Amino acid sequence: MVKPVGVIAELRAWRERNDLSQVQAVEVMVAGGVPVVLGTLRRWEIGYRQPGPMASKLLEEFLKRHPKVKGKGKGRYGSRAKAAVSEAGVKRIMELRAKGKTLKEIGREMGISESSVSRICGGSRHGKNKAIKL
C-alpha cells in the first residue's frame, strides 16, 4: 500500500474541514457531479488504490468549487450530531416495515439512512437529518 498523496490528501483535508464521514463525502461528491462510490473512496484514502488521471482532475475541480459544504454534519449518513426522529416518524417507519418495505425504501421515503431505519426498528430512536446540500 502507498501513502495517499496529492488530491487524496486534499480530499481527506476537505472532509476533515467540513466534518464529513466518508459516506457523507461520497453523498456530497455525487450530488456535485463526481460519480464515486464509498468503496473507491475508502481504497483511495487508505492508499490501496490511487485515482486515475481523469478522476484526479475531476476531484481537484470539485474540491476547488466546493471548499465548504453547507449544513455540515447534517448529512443523511454518519452525522456526528444525533437528531431524534419524531414520534410520528418512528410510527411511520414501523408501519412501513410491517408492510414489508425494505430499509432502503423506508430510508428514501423518510430522508434517512438504512442504518438509521434499522436502529429505529431495533429500538433506538436516534435518526439523522436530511441530505447535505452543496
Describe this structure in words.
The protein is mostly helical. The chain has 2 domains: 7-65; 83-127, Arc Repressor Mutant, subunit A (Orthogonal Bundle), CATH 1.10.10. Helix content is 53%, strand content 3%. It has 7 helices and 2 strands, in the order ααααβαααβ. The chain has helices at 7-17, 22-31, 38-46, 53-65, 87-98, 103-110, 114-121; strands at 83-84, 126-127. A two-stranded antiparallel ribbon has the order 1-2. α1 (7-17) runs parallel beside α4 (53-65) and α6 (103-110) packs across α7 (114-121). The radius of gyration is 17 Å and the shape is elongated. The two termini are 32 Å apart. Mean pLDDT is 80; it is low at 73-83 and 126-134.
**Sequence of strands across the biggest β-sheet:** 1-2
How many helices? The count is 7
- Describe the sheet with the most strands: 2 strands, antiparallel
Could you tell me the number of beta strands? 2
Order of helices and strands: HHHHEHHHE
> What's the number of structural domains?
2
Rg estimate, integer Å: 17 Å
Question: Considering DSSP H and I runs of 4 or more, what fraction of the residues is helical?
Answer: 40-55%
Report strand %. under 5%
Shape: elongated
Separation of the first and last Cα atoms: 32 Å
Unreliable segments (pLDDT under 50, ≥5 consecutive)?
73-83, 126-134
Structural class: mainly alpha
